[in-house]
Amino acid sequence: MELFQPDNFSKAKIQFNKCGDNTKHFLKILERYFDNPEIVGVYQVDRAEIQTQNYKIIVRDFEETKTILLKKYIVSADNKQTEFYLNFLVLLQKKGVAVSTVLKTLQGESTATIDGKMYSLFEFMAGDHFFPLEQGLANVAMSMAKMHVAFNEFDNEYVNQIDTLSQMGYYPFNVIKKYTEQDLSVYEEKIKNKDKKEKIEKNVLTKLPLFKEAAREIEKNKERIARLPAKIIHSDFHPHNVLMDNNKVKAIIDFENVRIGQQARDIAFAIYKFGRQFFTGSMSVEEVKLKANRLQDLFITHYDKIRPLSNEEVELLLILAKDTFIRKLLFVLKGVYDEGNYLWINDLPKHIVAIDEINYFWPHNHG
């Protein structure tokens, strides 16, 4: 499997497709938010989505025309938990963090449930996802740092609330709370024992020795990781979770995965996910090594302007990045081979190639 191939986060342009003429269902939702709504147009985002579906809706309320974003929750979500996270956005916005503006219902609630499905509305923000330019990466780094500073202003009671709520969802860090090299060996044997192996399973077998090596490396550093302070983190900060305009961050989105962890883990994941967008198959290995190293330096330099990292955090970035992807890999493997859950099977290719790609960003920390 080749390194740095385009993944489902490579498309920067956000496009919407016009929906059909049946707008009665959307009108039922909008009536919870507006006194006299009239739908002018409905457009669905042109991207495969698993957990939510997103729509741009142009609505006329009396004489005023507004454009809003409607989010439909596909995977079952808890109303109280979702309300909490939407109110969290309101608090972050007050602290100066670039986030989407949540719209409240006429009754002052952040969500509306219609026919058993939950919805939330936001002011529509025109923009696109991250495009690989170094100026954009610098602004992403500073926006993340500002977000972390705001996170650190919440008191312990609020942090504990997030810690409790974040453990309720079906996410990698909830399902794979801890692991050892042996857990990887278990799935290695399950795949080996299959009479007929899919191509992706053969690729998993090829990369598992590298994941096992990384697991041993992480085990050696677990006490250092444990010493890093536990803070609020976004936990899913990637190129499709920012809205950009002229290389500036207009909004950080999708806070459903927010939880308690090491903020250096947030940084490591972002450096890798945003950094890999800069590479193409035409670049030589040496070009990639030089550029990757420069990109992680650029990210840290601009992040440090807002929230300086400790030496320990910087030294553990590589380890934390690998730890994140081992958990993501085990999460998918457990779902497929233990639970018959294939929801995240399409994520396997990008998880297994990450173990190689990550090393390009931290060559001095590797080996």
* Percent strand: 15-25%
Give the CATH H-level superfamily of the largest domain. Aminoglycoside phosphotransferase (APH), C-terminal lobe
Low-confidence runs of at least 5 consecutive residues: none
Mean pLDDT across every amino acid position: 92
Q: Helicity level, as a percent range?
A: 40-55%
**Backbone structural class:** alpha+beta
Shape: globular
Q: What is the element string, with H for helices and E for strands?
A: EHEEEHEEEHHHHHHEEEEHHHHH
Name the quaternary structure: single chain
Sheet with the most strands, sense and barrel status: 7 strands, antiparallel
Total DSSP E strands: 11
CATH class of the largest domain: Alpha Beta
Tally of domains: 2
CATH architecture of the largest domain: Alpha-Beta Complex
Structure explained in plain terms:
The protein has 367 residues and is α+β, with helices and mostly antiparallel strands. The protein has two domains: 16-123, Phosphorylase Kinase, domain 1 (2-Layer Sandwich), CATH 3.30.200; 134-361, Aminoglycoside 3'-phosphotransferase, Chain: A, domain 2 (Alpha-Beta Complex). It contains 13 helices and eleven strands. The strands form three sheets. Strands 1, 2, 3, 4, 5, 6 and 7 form a seven-stranded antiparallel beta sheet that branches. Strands 8-11 form a two-stranded antiparallel sheet. α6 (181-192) runs antiparallel to α7 and α6 (181-192) crosses α12 (317-339). It is globular and about 65 Å long. The two termini are 22 Å apart.
